């Protein structure tokens, strides 16, 4: 196998933007830590993700790649993988014997049973693994760590506003946004909307989340206040879902008020609008809109997240972790976050506080 095709990805992103994966690749070249390990990786196939993939290959992994159902693989990334002779599996032809699964949106749950365990990247997938009370292997959730704040607060919100403008040709400036979910992704979207002077209303079932949204200057609407939610939907310029819960809108509310909104956009890993909405009534056929653009999330925000996702392999191999869901270790997440803040001169806590 030749790794030369990955030079295309190197040319796109300077090393200064991916300090963690650069380190991981350097160590992988020297130590070959994944030699012979059968790994199935299910993450968006993008040019950004090639750096993460390359680190696994340099480390000797017997690697198979598949792509989540919520997006099409980026053709330019597929070309690199094909040229490097990386195994690419169709969703209906996954390998049956796998040591470790690197998952996204929980799509490999019930489809592959890894010998050593899985590492999950997203909140959607974390919810699915948490609900599976018969797991026979350990699952480490990177989403349940502070590392995810970087992607969610800075990356995903920025990607939302870039994707919306690219897909619609419309400006968000001075418009009303109805946002479902005020977790990490929801907060990131609201943060990215601040420069646009948007009027943001947040719907969430959690009193704590609503209180936080109110402190940040947004209108807070309890999820069980059906009338208030539907009235807000009918008058919104954009309705955005970021709950991590599939079908949540169809499950709780009438579709008609939502169809009066100017646009409907999903930012979850699964269809959060549900069966009451035809695919042509939601942007990008109800798939997450950020993955419809060439560079969904800027790589400096993905770099520490991808690094942590790969680190999950070492945790599963080196420690006796019981079956079930486990958060990525907090002390490791804080070390990664602190180093990222130092490298890019950003105080994440200060940014969070400034939201209010």
UniProtKB/TrEMBL annotation:
Regions annotated as coiled coil: none
Residue span, S-adenosyl-L-homocysteine hydrolase NAD binding domain: 152-316
Pfam family, one: AdoHcyase_NAD
UniProt name for this protein: S-adenosyl-L-homocysteine hydrolase NAD binding domain-containing protein
Source organism: Ruegeria haliotis
């Amino acid at each position: 196998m030749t790794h030369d095709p990955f030079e295309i990805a190197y040319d796109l992103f300077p090393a200064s933007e991916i300090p963690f994966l650069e380190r991981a690749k350097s160590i992988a070249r020297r130590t070959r830590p994944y030699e012979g390990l059968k790994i199935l990786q299910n993450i968006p196939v993008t040019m950004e993700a090639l750096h993460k993939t390359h680190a696994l290959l340099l480390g000797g992994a017997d690697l198979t790649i598949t792509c989540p159902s919520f997006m099409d693989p980026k053709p330019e990334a597929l070309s690199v993988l094909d040229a490097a002779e990386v195994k690419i599996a169709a969703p209906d032809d996954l390998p049956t014997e796998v040591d470790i699964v690197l998952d996204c949106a929980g799509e490999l749950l019930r489809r592959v049973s890894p010998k050593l365990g899985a590492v999950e990247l997203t909140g959607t997938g974390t919810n699915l693994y948490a609900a599976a009370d018969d797991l026979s292997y350990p699952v480490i959730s990177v989403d349940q760590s502070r590392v995810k704040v970087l992607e969610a607060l800075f990356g995903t919100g920025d990607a939302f506003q870039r994707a919306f403008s690219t897909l619609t040709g419309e400006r968000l400036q001075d418009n009303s946004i109805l946002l479902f979910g005020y977790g990490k992704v929801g907060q990131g979207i609201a943060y990215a909307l601040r420069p646009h002077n948007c009027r943001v209303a947040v719907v969430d079932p959690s009193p704590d989340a609503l209180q936080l949204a109110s402190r940040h200057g947004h209108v807070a609407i309890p999820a069980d206040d059906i009338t208030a939610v539907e009235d807000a939907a009918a008058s919104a310029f954009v309705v955005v879902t970021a709950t991590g819960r599939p079908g949540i809108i169809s499950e709780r509310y009438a579709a008609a008020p939502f169809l009066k909104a100017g646009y409907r956009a999903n930012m979850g890993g699964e269809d959060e609008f549900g069966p009451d909405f035809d695919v042509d009534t939601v942007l990008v056929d109800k798939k997450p809109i950020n993955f419809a653009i060439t560079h969904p999330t800027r790589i400096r925000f993905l770099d520490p997240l991808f690094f942590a996702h790969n680190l999950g392999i070492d945790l599963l191999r080196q420690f006796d972790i019981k079956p079930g869901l486990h958060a990525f270790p907090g002390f490791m997440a804080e070390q990664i976050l602190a180093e990222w803040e130092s490298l890019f001169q950003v105080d994440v806590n200060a940014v969070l506080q400034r939201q209010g």
